[in-house]
Amino acid sequence: MLTFFGLGSVTGSWLGGKLTDKIGHYRTMALSLILSSVLFVLLQFPSTFWSICIGIYLVMSAADIFRPAVFVAISAYSKPENRTRSVTLIRLAINLGFSAGPVAGGFIIATAGYNGLFWIDGLTCLAAGILLLRLLHPKRAKEEHDDIIVQAKTAMSDKLYLLFIVAMMIFGFIFIQYFSTMPLIYANHHNLDELEIGLLLGLNGLTIFLLEMPLIKFMENKRFTAISYVILGTLLSGLSFLVINLTDWVGVLVVGMLLVTIGEMIGFPFSNSFALNRSDGKKRGSYMALYSIAFSVSHIFGHNSGMQLIDNFGFKFTWYTMLALALVACTLLFILKSLLKKESV
Asked: Cβ(284)–Cβ(75) under 8 Å?
C-alpha cells in the first residue's frame, strides 16, 4: 500500500508539473484540492486489498498535483530574496497540519467512526479549494510571459539539475527511514512503548515549528550557496544513523532525532530554493514536478528496501548503509557545486 502511495505521488507530481506549465499554478492547485475532496470521500468504499491500493493511488495522484503548483506559486507571490523563507513558511504550515492531523483524526474516529474521517477529509479539501479560489488573487502573481514559457527549456534537458535530483532521491531515501524503519528499533531494541515513540517522533515536528524559521533567517545572511547548505543537511542526516550504532544508551535516540531534524530543516528549504532559482526563465512546472518526484520515488523504494535490509542483515548494517548513501549524496552534491562554479564563469 505504501508503494501505491508512492506511485500515486509520482503520477500526481508529474501531472501537476504538466498542468502548471499549461494552465498555471492557480487553476492547478484549485483542481487538485477539489478533485481530492471527491476521491477522499470515495476512498471509504473499497473493501478488498487491491481496490484499496487503487483507491490510495488515485487519491495520491490527485492530491500531489498540488505540490509542483504550490512551489511555483512561491516564486510567483514572493520576491526572489524571500524564496527560501517562503518555502520554510510552507513547511511550517505542513508540519502544523501533521501535528494536528493525528489528534483530530483520533477524535473523529472516536466520535464519528472511520466513515466520518473520510467525509471530513473530503470536506476540508473542498474548503481549502474554496478558500483558495476566494482569497488568492492570481492577478497579483508575477507570471512568466507566454512566449517565454513556450520557448523555455524543461528540467529533463538540464543535466546539472538532473544530478541534483539524483542526490535528492538518495537524501529522501535515507530521510524517510526515520518514519518507517527507525520506529522498529525504538520498539524492538529499546523497548519503547507507543506513547514514547509518539513523543520522539513529535520532537521532530516541535523542533521544526520552534526553530526552522529563525534558523533559515540566520543562515540566509551567510555567504554560503544553497548547495553548500544541502550538503550540510544531508551529512547531518547521515550522521544521525551513525550515532544510533555507537551506543545502546536510549538517550542516543533523542540525539539521532535532533540530528536528522536539523538536517531536514537545513536541507529541504535550501534544496527547494535551489530548484526554484534554477527554474527561473524556464518551465517552472517541470522543474518543481521533478523535485517532487524525487521524494515520491523515495516513498516507492525507501520503506520496502529499509524493511528488507533490516530483515536480512539487521539494524546496524542498515544504519551503516544509510550513512554510506548519505555520503554518496554529499559526493554528488560536491560534484554539482564544482560544475555550477564552472557554469557561472
From this structure: yes
CB distance 225 to 172 below 8 Å: no
**How far does Cα 183 stand from its chain's mean position?**
19
Coil, strand or helix at 153: coil
Helix (H) or strand (E) holding 160: helix 159-175
Cβ neighbors of 308 (< 8 A, separation 6 or more) are none
In 312-343, which positions are buried (b, 16+ CB within 10 angstroms) versus exposed (e)? eeebeebbebbbebbebbbebbeebeeebeee
Cell digits of residue 256 = 539521532
CA dist list (Å): 32 to 63, 64, 238: 6, 7, 34
Segments of the chain scoring below 50 in pLDDT: 145-150
The per-residue pLDDT for range 21-61, each reduced to its tens digit, is 888 888 999 999 999 999 999 999 999 999 999 999 999 99
Cβ neighbours around 243 below 10 Å, total: 16
Vertex 71: Cα angle to 326 and 209 (nearest 5):
65
